[in-house]
Amino acid sequence: MAANILLVEDEPAIQTLIATNLQRAGHTVLAAGDAEKAQRLVHEALPDLILLDWMLPGMSGVDFARRLRADERTREVPIIMLTARTEERDKVLGLETGADDYITKPFSPRELVARIKAVLRRRAPQVTEDIVEIGGLRLDPVTHRVAAAGNPINLGPTEFRLLHYLMTHPERVHSRTQLLDGVWGDHVFVEERTVDVHVRRLRSALEPSGTDALIQTVRGAGYRLSANQ
Ligand code: CA
After folding, report:
1. Which of 52, 66, 151, 212 could form a disulfide with 207 if both were Cys (CB 3.0 to 4.6 A apart)?
2. How far is the CA of 50 from the centre of ligand 1 (A)?
């Protein structure tokens, strides 16, 4: 499982230690020492998960988590809070801000990696390596293979990621901006019509098997993958 993780931690030694361990586990890590820098990084590209230290210079981790939850674009990004505090009251407060999990320092790298994996599995299935099957389509993230009723389908890398994202978030309407964030990780420099181009390519690759009908256009809203017509 390889995710883009934003690490917000002001202590350089801890930042390096965590980043090294996450990279060893296959993740890509961007690090920030305060909420302001983290906000800029989030604006540029939406991470798959945010590891957020509770005590930061300037805006606290708790307030930053609240801000992320209040913004429609960042509302669903999984957050794991890191903290030296052990009091139960603080734990409750951390979870009330919308954090998905909470890890108390000191923690072992192994525990951190396991907790990240659990949160990603629950909240960001597009970065897991689980096989997904919907409406006769089967996608295997490990072998990068897609098949319809057992017949292989060839997809370009972007179409593959797009299909994986749609299959792991079925029945929901995704705006072009949300797809840029979720599939391209970039809503700033990539144009919205790029999404339409790749949806068109994906549909034509699926068309011979008839599974292109799974990808629905929702007028004025975006796209949806649904096994229900
Ligand atoms: Ca700190």
Report:
1. 212
2. 15
pTM: 0.82
CA of 53 to the centre of ligand 1 (A): 6
Determine the topology of domain 132-225 in CATH: Arc Repressor Mutant, subunit A (1.10.10)
The SS3 assignment for 69 reads helix
CATH 1.10.10.10 range(s) for the chain read: 132-225
Distance 41 CA to ligand 1 centre (A): 19
Q: What is the pLDDT of residues 142-163, one digit of tens each?
A: 999 999 999 999 999 999 999 9
Residue 210: CA count within 13 A, CB half-sphere:
5
Q: Please state which CATH class domain 4-127 belongs to.
A: alpha beta
Lowest-confidence range among 22-26, 57-61, 75-79, 86-90? 86-90
